[in-house]
UniProtKB/TrEMBL annotation:
Name listed for the protein in its UniProt record: Large ribosomal subunit protein uL24m
GO terms for cellular component: ribonucleoprotein complex; ribosome
UniProt KW keywords: Ribonucleoprotein, Ribosomal protein
Organism: Heterodera trifolii
Gene3D superfamilies: 2.30.30.30
Pfam families for this protein: KOW
Segments forming domain KOW: 107-134
Family designation: Belongs to the universal ribosomal protein uL24 family.
Entry superkingdom: Eukaryota
UniProt-listed InterPro entries: KOW (IPR005824), Rib_uL2_dom2 (IPR014722), Ribosomal_uL24 (IPR003256), Ribosomal_uL24_KOW (IPR041988), Translation_prot_SH3-like_sf (IPR008991)
Amino acid sequence: MRLTCQAMVRKLHAEMDYARHFPKAYLDKAQRHVPMKVYDNRFGAPPVIRWAIRPDDWAMRTKRPWEYGEVENVIRQEKIYQRQLFSTKFYRRNWNKLPTIPAENWTIFPGDTVQVMVGKHKGRKSNVSHVIKESNAVFVEGLHTKLVDKFNKGRMKEMGIGDVFFDQWEEQPLFLHKGEVQLVDPSDGEPCTAKWVLNDSKTEYQRISSRTGFLIPLPSRAFTTYDYVAPETYLEVPGKDTPAEAVLKRTYMPKLSTFEQEIEEQMKLEKRPEGETMPTYWY
């Protein structure tokens, strides 16, 4: 009899994100989660870190920190944080009050057909352009829009460029935890919620409608990342990408020895007697 552990099935949908291949160092730098000064050597006490912006004080907005216009907001927040850090006023911490939706429970992805449940476009359907899981925001193409001044009309008038229409329609976020947007059930075209269940062979999670139980397949745009449009179209770069054969090759050989003993064998060091430890010093 074959037993399959449900916890061992990989949840690929929890890893889907446009920025999944971004280096963590780049994300920390974009959010200004970088240490400006580290006060260490405190006689065994943990080091004190002076952050550009403390990670606990970061509140995710409806735009990614590397998007156009958002970089200026992040730099402005850093300046305010550092200025109030050394002033008599305290810094108002940006506590994230949004309910967190776990990545394994997220059900809406770019390319999905959804229906808007609020606003002037209530009841209309369109495709999802992008999502921001950290703020539970979903952006729908052409719906729930707002007229936004993209080019700073006041500055344009100072330059002598007037009477020109610079406003553009921009999609506004629809928050999933508030029920402002729902998936469209392919069986009847009505809005529904979805959940993840294991298939019959217990090898993969599938997205089904909570109302009808109908399968809702993932769109191809859900697999798009910064590196590729589709995983099968990605071209490996020699010298930068590790080949799949090298990744799958088994090189670990278990031994009945400790880590220190393995180092002694590899470096050809003189073996110490059993139970003898090296002296330690306190400075």
